[in-house]
Amino acid sequence: MAEGQPHEDPLAEARRVVDAATAAGLAVRATGGVGIALVCESACRPPLARPYQDIDFMADAHDAGAIARLFMELGYEPEEEFNVLHGQRRLFFLEREHHRQADVFLDAIEMCHRLDVSNRLRVHDQSLAPADLLLSKLQVVETNDKDYRDAIAVLADHELTADDTGISINRVNELCATDWGWWRTVTMVAERTHKVARELCQGEDGKALEHVPDRIRHLLAEIERAPKSRKWKMRARVGERVRWHEDPEDIDHS
Fold first, then answer.
1. pLDDT tens, 125-184?
2. In sequence order, what DSSP letters do the residues of 111-149 get, joined into one string?
3. Using CA atoms, how far apart are residues 33 and 42, in angstroms rounded to an integer?
4. Residues 6+ apart with CB under 8 A from 247
């Protein structure tokens, strides 16, 4: 297939874009549901399998101009007004043949919290590192079914580790042990994810997920065990009396 011709399959298309970016010397990585499916086999089979349409990517803000040109070369049309208004943080493209949208976050995923990955784009070859993929889902306060399934896929296929060979607990605590807001959201959503994982384990297809609830408990225990910063402790005194997260109206959990 010619480089400028998009694939119908979103996973193959994500690989095409990432490979083209790499060949051009640009660090572009898949994130969101497609990014998770690229590195998690569990996401591609029941009970976690789900359809994908749009694709989310992460890139370096310094490369925004080159990335815009690359996407146009690959058959995408820029959403000009959006990119002019938000181009320092995010770029948006349309691929008309397959009615697909490509969202390119620059430096950070900003939803309920800000997940800065500007220095972590080259940890893995195609997607963000497992810890960042998981955090991108556990930071969503108004969690939907897709978010739960994606988070469970990451937890199903990656062990908790000290480094980025798995779900780096050091990376998780880099945020959760220093920022009370991150801690509150991650622990709250992880508890909900634990409940969903237990329910999914009940069916025949769920037997392969039986280890996930214990892994979530392990994750929560590691988060609690980590020494908290002074800033974290000061914010904890206020607790939920003051809003601790953003509530963006345009969140699309893709």
1. 999 999 999 999 999 999 999 999 999 999 999 999 999 999 999 999 999 999 999 999
2. SSSEEE-TT-TTSSSSB--HHHHHHHHHT-SS--HHHHH
3. 12
4. 112, 141, 142
Does residue 54 carry a pLDDT above 90? yes
- Residues facing residue 100 across a β-bridge: 95
Q: CA-CA distance, 34 to 117, in Å (whole number)?
A: 17
Counting every residue written for the chain, the total comes to 254
Parallel, antiparallel, or unpaired for β 108-110 and 100-106? unpaired
Q: For residue 55, what is the enclosing H or E element?
A: strand 55-59
What is the rounded (10 degree) CA torsion for 237, 239, 242, 247? 140
Q: Which of 33, 41, 31, 32 is nearest to 156 (CA)?
A: 41
pLDDT tens by residue, 86-108: 878 999 999 999 999 999 999 99
Q: How far is CA 167 from CA 61, 127, 173, in A?
A: 25, 13, 11
Query: Residue 203's pLDDT band (boundaries 50, 70, 90)?
Result: confident
Q: For residue 47, is the peptide bond before it cis, meaning its omega torsion is within 30 degrees of 0?
A: yes
Residue 122 to residues 21, 61, 87, 106, Cα–Cα distance (Å):
12, 14, 22, 14
Tell how far CA 97 is from the center of its chain: 26
Asked if the model's pLDDT at residue 1 lies above 50, the reply is: no
Q: CA-based diameter of the chain, in Å? A: 58
